[in-house]
Amino acid sequence: MIEVVEHAADQRAADARDRRELLAAYMPRLVVEWVDTAPDVRHRVVEDTLVFVDISGFTKLPEQLAKHGKIGAEELAATIGNSFIHLLDIAYDHGGRLIKFGGDALLVHFSGEEHQVRACCAAFQMRASLRVTGRPIVLGHSVMLRMSVGTHSGRFDMFLVGASHRELVVTRSAASTTVSMESAASAGEILLIPATASALQPGDLGAPKAGGWLLRHAPAFITAAATPRDAVGPGADL
Q1: DSSP calls for 89-130
Q2: pTM of the complete model
Q3: Residue 139 belongs to what H/E stretch?
Q4: What are the beta bridge partners of residue 45?
Q5: Which domain CATH number covers 207?
Q6: Fewer CB within 10 Å of terminal CB in the chain, N or C?
């Protein structure tokens, strides 16, 4: 009887692990952890940093590739995908978690120790990477990609809404401010709200702009950020 009970418990654990791995391929890892540990909780308040990244330069490419038909559409999708893969790799290495991906924009969440500093360092290195990789030639058409970034550190309301499927929604004025910072940033700029800038050294900051500060240098941090690319499992930092 004991062996039967132990086998059933092992099977339930294996099923839960398989479910986590399946969800991880399609959902933000923050949601996977949330659903796994507190499936009935629909609202959380966190005090972290959000980074909103918008990529410019893709606008004219669909028109140029339209004459290539299906191949043009496939090449466009591949170019966008490859660009974001490189950027997300950098965000993950700094402990970031993808919250939203849409069109040519990313919303990345940083939590834990030095979340403000790690978020800024990730944004700086993402911009540096795009300056190298952001000049692809697609079916003979050259592209120059640039990014504008807005960051905010503060309290955010997060909701899991929906019945047949769950959607993560980030609200509170801090979320709107993150978007406003990105809107105020020109292409190539990283704009920090004062709450984020206050965690950096003065020498890392550039000129003030739109109620915030431009990022001048990549800030140093000492926290060993766990990468969200690690396997999903009980107790894992997702």
Answers
A1: HHHHHTT-EEEEEETTEEEEEE-STTHHHHHHHHHHHHHHHH
A2: 0.82
A3: none
A4: 157
A5: 3.30.70.1230
A6: N
32-62 per-residue burial string, b: 16 or more CB within 10 A, e: under 16: bbbbbeeeeeeeeebebbbbbbbbebeeebe
pLDDT tens column, 109-149: 999 999 999 999 999 999 999 998 888 877 777 788 899 99
Give a yes or no: residue 2 inside a domain: no
Residue 122 lies in a domain: yes
Read off the DSSP letter of residue 172.
S
Q: How many CA atoms lie within 13 A of 82 on its CB side?
A: 13
Range of the domain at 69: 39-215
* Mean pLDDT confidence for 23-33: 70
Q: Which residue shows structure tokens 């990529």?
A: 55
- The whole-angstrom distance between residue 218's C-alpha and the CA centroid of its chain comes to 18
Q: Helices marked H in the chain — which ranges?
A: 2-24, 29-37, 61-65, 70-93, 115-133, 173-184, 194-197
Number of domains forming the structure of the chain: 1
